[in-house]
Design goal:
11 helices
């Protein structure tokens, strides 16, 4: 049984590598626009928040790691968007015509991520200094959004309370601007938060993301990888990390119009 499972996992990793290598081989050598920085910040914030939320939920209840990861990753990833967007003086975007993936059971992570940001931005009207995100307002807007759409406020405050939100954000900011996204992924693997397969898939995915020359080709590539992961027998937490990361990146690339800059 274990040997069969291991063979399946190896085949999943081989499939994703083959798709990535084939995709990258057809891409031109181009310079990426500056708004990719926001997508990278989003993605780093997602994995950091997801790992933190999962750890807290497990410690507090012994269960609920998935809920904690979804809430923590969505909120911290979205907050990272706000900070990076303000740094670059970039206003709110639009995700209505982004390419979604109905096969990705965690596609709501990316959708919620940008809806929370948009709600926050509309309240702030971008009249604040770079890095000076209103942390209380942002947390409250996250509570409001989730309460209206997925989880009640008590669930959010239980699985990702305000003090954890602040601690996670401070840890993110201590490391975010001196740590590139690849290093974050490797660190998560070395800490035991993600598996070897997840590390390899995410590093390959980041390479493909950085070299992509159009939104439709990148979204198509992303969805092909997401669908393989969805159909795999990877542990559910690894699926949350992988599929949430990819949902955030795919929708974010459209939201920030990275191919238009």
């Amino acid at each position: 049984m274990d040997n069969l499972a291991n063979l399946h996992i190896v085949s999943v990793l081989n499939q994703t590598k083959d798709i990535t290598n084939n995709y990258i081989s057809k891409l031109p050598d181009i310079n990426r626009g500056k708004f990719w920085q926001i997508v990278y910040a989003d993605a780093k914030g997602f994995v950091g928040g997801a790992v933190s939320g999962a750890a807290l939920a497990t410690l507090a209840t012994g269960v609920g790691a998935g809920v904690g990861a979804i809430i923590g990753g969505t909120v911290i990833g979205s907050l990272a968007s706000a900070a990076e967007a303000e740094k670059l003086n970039k206003g709110s975007g639009d995700s209505n015509n982004a390419i979604f993936n109905n096969n990705n059971q965690y596609d709501n992570i990316g959708i919620s991520h940008y809806n929370i940001f948009k709600n926050y931005y509309n309240l702030e009207h971008n009249n604040i200094e770079p890095y000076d995100v209103d942390l209380v307002l942002f947390y409250n807007e996250s509570l409001n959004y989730f309460s209206d759409n997925e989880y009640d406020a008590d669930t959010i405050e239980f699985f990702f309370p305000y003090n954890t939100y602040i601690d996670t954000w401070e840890d993110y900011y201590d490391n975010e601007y001196i740590t590139d996204i690849n290093t974050v992924i490797v660190d998560l693997f070395e800490l035991g938060d993600i598996t070897y397969d997840s590390k390899e898939i995410l590093l390959d995915y980041i390479d493909a993301m950085e070299l992509s020359d159009s939104y439709t080709s990148f979204a198509s590539y992303s969805i092909s990888i997401e669908n393989i992961i969805t159909d795999s027998n990877y542990a559910e937490m690894q699926k949350i990390y992988l599929l949430g990361f990819m949902s955030t990146s795919r929708i974010g690339a459209y939201y920030w119009n990275v191919f238009g800059n």
